[in-house]
Design a protein that fits this description.
Elements: H1 9-17, H2 30-47, E1 53-57, H3 63-70, E2 74-79, H4 82-95, E3 100-104, H5 107-113, E4 118-124, H6 133-143, E5 144-155, H7 159-172, H8 189-198, E6 201-212, E7 217-221, E8 227-234
Parallel strand pairs: 1-2, 1-4, 2-3, 4-5
Antiparallel strand pairs: 5-8, 6-7, 6-8
Catalytic activity: a 3-(all-trans-polyprenyl)benzene-1,2-diol + S-adenosyl-L-methionine = a 2-methoxy-6-(all-trans-polyprenyl)phenol + S-adenosyl-L-homocysteine + H(+); a 3-demethylubiquinol + S-adenosyl-L-methionine = a ubiquinol + S-adenosyl-L-homocysteine + H(+)
Function: O-methyltransferase that catalyzes the 2 O-methylation steps in the ubiquinone biosynthetic pathway.
Organism: Ramlibacter pallidus
């Protein structure tokens, strides 16, 4: 049976082209390295990663997946960008990271293969890069066990987020390559909450993520106007 894969070929090509720089903290992936301790600690504080089975949807080069495995989780990272997956696999081998593996798969395909198989599902900085965001949210809900946690992070859509996440981050501060994000693909918290409700996920907590370009410090806050995270749980 032929099936349309929920992915943008241009987005996959973009991240594949940059794949060899995933683990360079001074590259365009530097912001992911800087925010990773924040999101990792937040996820761990709510879900308790040790001993849990976790799938990281849209894992890229494995920055979050690797760190969750080091917290004691058994982690599967999935992505459709082949070069990024190879980088993740190579890093795991070189670093000797235990209990982490990587597969080329979409969230929808894995949800059909392994429904309700994971204690925790993470989908971070990925939703704004796919054509059908609601489909990914639904797949994440189908992957997690009843009572399990699903975590999302993405970017709000409003004039402030355009100014900060595109003009500021890509054109003024050069934190990200130009063209990394498209404003119309940004997601309002109300939209994400609606997709979660439709997938039978309860949104239990949201957090904003802020950045000070002078001190180069990131922190979590109550301000969800630009970058934000959502913790949801399956009933």
């Amino acid at each position: 049976m032929n099936e349309t894969v929920n992915a943008d070929p241009a987005e996959l090509a973009k991240f594949s082209e940059q794949a060899h720089r995933w683990w360079d903290p001074d590259s365009e992936f530097g912001p992911l390295h800087h925010i990773n301790p924040l999101r990792l600690n937040w996820i761990d504080s709510l879900a308790g990663l040790a001993g849990k089975r976790v799938v990281d949807v849209g894992c890229g080069g494995g920055i979050l997946a690797d760190s969750m495995a080091r917290r004691g989780a058994s982690v599967l990272g999935i992505d459709l960008a082949q070069k990024a997956l190879r980088v993740a696999q190579l890093h795991a081998l070189e670093a000797g990271t235990p209990n982490v593996e990587y597969r080329e798969s979409s969230a929808e395909a894995l949800a059909r293969e392994q429904p309700e198989s994971f204690d925790v599902v993470t989908c971070m900085e990925m939703l704004e890069h796919v054509p059908d965001r609601a489909s990914v949210v639904d797949a994440c809900a189908r992957l997690v066990k009843p009572g399990g946690w699903v975590f999302f992070s993405t970017i709000n859509r409003n004039p402030k987020s355009f100014l900060f996440a595109i003009v500021g981050a890509e054109y003024v501060l050069n934190l990200l390559p130009r063209g990394t994000h498209e404003y119309l693909k940004f997601i309002k918290p109300s939209e994400l909450a609606g997709w979660c409700r439709a997938a039978r996920l309860d949104v239990l907590q949201t957090q904003g993520m802020e950045y000070n370009p002078v001190t180069r410090r990131y922190w979590l806050s109550a301000d969800t106007s630009v970058n934000y995270l959502a913790a949801t749980r399956k009933a």
